[in-house]
Each structure stands twice: as structure tokens, then as C-alpha cells.
Amino acid sequence: MKRAQENGIFDKEKWVIKGGKRSPLLMRMGVLVIIMVCGVYICLTGCFNVVKTPTIITTTSKFIKSNNFQVNFLQCQSNSSEFHYIHYPKPLTFSREECECNPVRPFAILSMQRSGSGWFETMLNSHINVSSNGEIFSVKERRNNVSMILKTLDQVYNLDWFNSASKNECSAAVGLKWMLNQGLMENQEEIVKYFNQKGVSAIFLFRRNLLRRMISVLANSYDKSTKLLNGTHKSHVHSSVEAQVLASYKPKINATEIELKLKQEEAIIDQALESFNSTRHIVLYYEDLISNRIQKLQEVQEFLSVPYRNLTSRQVKIHGGPLANQVENWDELESILKKTSYERFLHADYR
Ligand SMILES: *[C@@H]1O[C@H](CO)[C@@H](O)[C@H](O)[C@H]1NC(C)=O
Ligand SMILES: *[C@@H]1O[C@H](CO)[C@@H](O)[C@H](O)[C@H]1NC(C)=O
Ligand SMILES: *[C@@H]1O[C@H](CO)[C@@H](O)[C@H](O)[C@H]1NC(C)=O
Ligand SMILES: *[C@@H]1O[C@H](CO)[C@@H](O)[C@H](O)[C@H]1NC(C)=O
Ligand SMILES: *[C@@H]1O[C@H](CO)[C@@H](O)[C@H](O)[C@H]1NC(C)=O
Ligand SMILES: *[C@@H]1O[C@H](CO)[C@@H](O)[C@H](O)[C@H]1NC(C)=O
Ligand SMILES: *[C@@H]1O[C@H](CO)[C@@H](O)[C@H](O)[C@H]1NC(C)=O
């Protein structure tokens, strides 16, 4: 998060630091002067003339009227490194109309199955200016090879991808949900390069308690074959009754290989964080979202530079309460994990 704040769109502090070794006060004054000069320049030349300067955006006068200040401010900011992260898509399939000059921030939610990313994404999509297009790469053909992946991403970030989550004209942040095992890690080198070139921001969403995740994975895969809810398989539910039905199944966990499995999962997460370290990113944990939802969602909205909104979801959590009630062979599992560094996973970390 620290990193995200440092990169904040109007963060003059960073500008100052980047400026060199001169005294911060002097630089701060300098920034002030530049801003003032920009302001005066705008006043003198009038908005319409400013637009003609070739700095960043070539455009018509139409939207300047509606969004005067922001556009001009961005032009003043055009040499800031932050500018790299903002883009103005020109969709092939429709016109952005009055929002043509609203910058759009491309993002990707990078996560693992059963880590709360479905819930998180529905909350993001409850924001009028955010459009997250779901797990696009769950379809194998789209991740056959890296050129297919990049082509798909281009379409998404150019606002030309259509599904129920698309909001089009006035989207200020557009993205997708992407599981690490959906071609992301296999093609990490090219994808990191693409992200950095196009200024895609990564939102990592992981679960601290990987044992709980494992239970959720096993229960979900069990439900795929048994379809507990009147013969329909559901990965996410909208009522506590449905949640109870799904949580009634207690998986048996192979205690022999549990430690190894948890280690492997941790390694995957570490590797993902390392590979995308050069990309603008934020790391979220499901547990923090549960316990501190308002603040975490605020951080995310700041990270995406979208206006603050209360975000909502109708989804209901499936597994709650102590872990001991959720696993068939709890005693066995407990005695094995107690001797490992994963003992912490045994303790309930939220209600
Ligand atoms: C921005 O950068 C361009 C070229 O890199 C330079 O010509 C211009 O003077 C810079 N503008 C400001 C306001 O620093
Ligand atoms: C990638 O896959 C698509 C179809 O899945 C295929 O048409 C294309 O030729 C492939 N590209 C490369 C470089 O292999
Ligand atoms: C958000 O969407 C609303 C409604 O479409 C639009 O008026 C507004 O300009 C958008 N805000 C941003 C920052 O794009
Ligand atoms: C499942 O069946 C029960 C009883 O037959 C009914 O009350 C319930 O609404 C059904 N649920 C769904 C999701 O169809
Ligand atoms: C548990 O895992 C071990 C090691 O991978 C394997 O040999 C064993 O067959 C597994 N047991 C069950 C019941 O799947
Ligand atoms: C990412 O880079 C920063 C600074 O270069 C470093 O301090 C941090 O440990 C790195 N994180 C990972 C997960 O590699
Ligand atoms: C968000 O919700 C809280 C409580 O639910 C409310 O107090 C606050 O005014 C809301 N804020 C906005 C911006 O709607």
C-alpha cells in the first residue's frame, strides 16, 4: 500500500524527490511555481488553445467544457512519471462520448481460486466507474499462447470487451480477474512487460490462511460433482440458507501431504509477488477485507484513482466459524500441523 500511495496520481512529494538533490523546500516552491505558471497560462490562452498543444491528448473542445480543470491539470502533469499509468482508450466498438477525456486506469486482480476474489470483484463492480470483466482467462482458448493473451488484454483495456460487467463510456478503471494458474505464471515475463508498458496496475488478492482456502477448494470441487443446491453447482451464494447447505460438507484432508501442499502454495504466491514487483501493485489479503472492509476498499479506490463510493456485494460467505467444525479428520490434521510452521492456520482468524 505504501507503494501505491507513493504513486498516488496527484502526489507532489514524489515529483519533488525525483527532481534531484536540491532542497525539498526549494523544489516544493518550484512545483508551486510550475503549477501557478500552468494556471496563468491556461487563463491567458483559454482552454481551447491549451488543448491544441501537443502535450498528451489530441482532442476536441467538446469535453473540455465539461471537464476543464482535470484535463488541464493533467496536461500540467504530463511529464510526471505518474502519467505513464493513465490512458485514454479509443474503443473501436463505441464512442466514449462526454467521458472521452476521462482517463481510464487499467488493472488486473491477480488471485488464486477460493480467495474471495469473486466477492471482491462484485464489490468493485458496484462502483459506477469500475468495470471488472470477470475471469476471462478461465476459457482455455484465450490463453493458448501469449499472443492470444495479449490480444485479449488489448481488447479489455481498450474497453472493447463486452459482458454484463462492462460499463463503457464513463469507466474510470477497467480490468479483469485472473487466477495465477490461468496462464499468468507460465507467461509472466511477457505479461510483466505488457503491464509495465501499458501501465496496468496489479491488485493481488491472497488469503493468509491457506488451510481455509484448501477447505474451500475441496468443498467447491465436491459440490461440482454433487450439486448440493437442488442439483445446481454454486461457487458463490446469496443467502445464508444456501451457505449452510454448502458448508455442511466436511472434506477430509490428506494429512500426509498437507505441509508440502501448503509450502507449494506459499511458493507460488511468493513467486508471483516477486515477478510482478516492478509493476505498480497493491497487495490485499482476504482476512483484512473481512475485518476491515471499509478502509481496505478505500485504499483500493485510491489505488485505482476512482472517486470514493460505498461498495457492496450481495454474496454471502460460505464457510465461517472454527475450522475444527469444517474438516472431517480434524484431530489428525491438528496433530500434524501443530508440529509445523503452519500451526497458525489452525487458530480461527475471524468469526
Ligand atoms: C516535458 O518534456 C518535454 C520533452 O521530454 C519537454 O520538451 C518539456 O519542456 C517538458 N515540459 C515540462 C513542463 O517540464
Ligand atoms: C495462438 O493461438 C491461436 C488460436 O488459439 C492461433 O490462431 C495462433 O496462430 C497462435 N499463435 C501463435 C504465435 O502460436
Ligand atoms: C463516473 O461515471 C459517471 C456516470 O456515468 C460520470 O458522470 C463520471 O464522469 C464518471 N467519473 C469518472 C472519474 O470517470
Ligand atoms: C431448493 O428446494 C427447496 C425445497 O424444495 C426450495 O425451498 C428452495 O427454494 C430451492 N432452492 C433453489 C436454489 O432452487
Ligand atoms: C495422501 O498423500 C500421500 C502422499 O502424497 C499419498 O501417498 C496417499 O495416497 C494420499 N492418501 C490419500 C487417501 O489420498
Ligand atoms: C520488491 O522490490 C523491493 C524494492 O526493490 C524489495 O524491497 C522487495 O523485497 C521486493 N519484493 C519482493 C516480493 O520481491
Ligand atoms: C457509506 O456508508 C456509510 C454507512 O453505511 C454512511 O455513513 C456513509 O455516509 C456512506 N458514504 C457514502 C459516500 O455514501
UniProtKB/TrEMBL annotation:
Record carries keyword Translocase: no
Keywords: Membrane, Transmembrane, Transmembrane helix
Keyword tRNA processing listed: no
Record-annotated membrane-spanning stretches: 31-51
Matches recorded under SUPFAM superfamilies: P-loop containing nucleoside triphosphate hydrolases (SSF52540)
Coiled-coil intervals: none
PANTHER family with a match to the protein in the record: PROTEIN, PUTATIVE, EXPRESSED-RELATED (PTHR32175), SULFOTRANSFERASE (PTHR32175:SF21)
Protein name according to UniProt: Sulfotransferase
Organism: Chenopodium quinoa (Quinoa)
Gene: LOC110732047
